[in-house]
Amino acid sequence: MKKKSKIYLAGHIGLVGSTIMRKLESEGYSNIVTRDLSELDLTRQTEVETFFAQEKPEYVILAAARVGGILANNTYPAEFIYDNIAIQTNIIHTAWKTGVKRLLFLGSSCIYPRECPQPMKEEHLLTGLLEATNEPYAIAKISGIKMCQSYNRQYKTNFMAVMPTNLYGKNDNFNLETSHVLPALIRKFHEAKVANKFKAEVWGTGKPRREFLYVDDLADACIRVMTLEDKVFSSLLKDGTTPLLNIGSGKDISIKELAFLVKDIVEFPGDIEFNSEKPDGTFQKLLDVSRMNSLGWKPETGLKEGIKRTYKWCLDNSIF
Description:
The chain has helices spanning about 15-25, 45-55, 70-75, 75-95, 135-155, 180-195, 215-225, 230-235, 255-265, 290-295, 305-315, and strands spanning about 5-10, 30-35, 60, 100-105, 160-165, 165-170, 200-205, 210-215, 245, 250-255, 270-275, 285. The chain is of the alpha/beta class.
């Protein structure tokens, strides 16, 4: 992927897409194509085909998706499976039809089984039952991975999937009904602080462990994959193997530890109340990132520093 290559970035407004956009621009990529929902509905096949025929992108980064935390997944399972399958099916199929050179599909670590060995390796995909609270979303993402694999095997395409761990950073979703755990904690503690409350509630027991990655580090990893030498990139797709790379920090933390870390950064002086009647979700979700590390990539931003940057961005932009 060259500086003047035509790159279609799907989902450029969301957390991941907006960060990849900033990273591409900062590194001198000058031919990036984007569309918002009012211009292009990615769930409509004819609209996607018309767009590709007109723009003829050489490279595609597929960051568009319907995403959310436990509450959103439980409340809108139909939308999570339909929208995600429709978006990725239309883009991946049309990318093949129009001769796209490389495609990068972004998924989620929830694709791995609920009782997956830790840390989770790429080969653990489809070796057990999924976590029930986000099964529709996980099935959609697994379908996208297998679609990339199938097109690579049958049509010799160069479609790769990357599976990020839990992400956070600028442009995250801080809506308490649909957000993931870290941005939800930031908002809860900030609002409790402003309201002079004596305590703030956190869902679950606090015992589950989660891995987190600052989204700027993910953007760096995605561009690293898209700019690999042809020989190296092809070696990752050899023999029809699953075209999958885990991207994470390789370290996890309990929700309880995370809550106290966020509490300190936000400077909320009150107590934390863990509501054990609310669901915990999967106990541990730690990625094995050795395959990605072998390509010369490691994250640069520690969890504490990343949360500080995120909270400062929220304050500077009046997010709450």
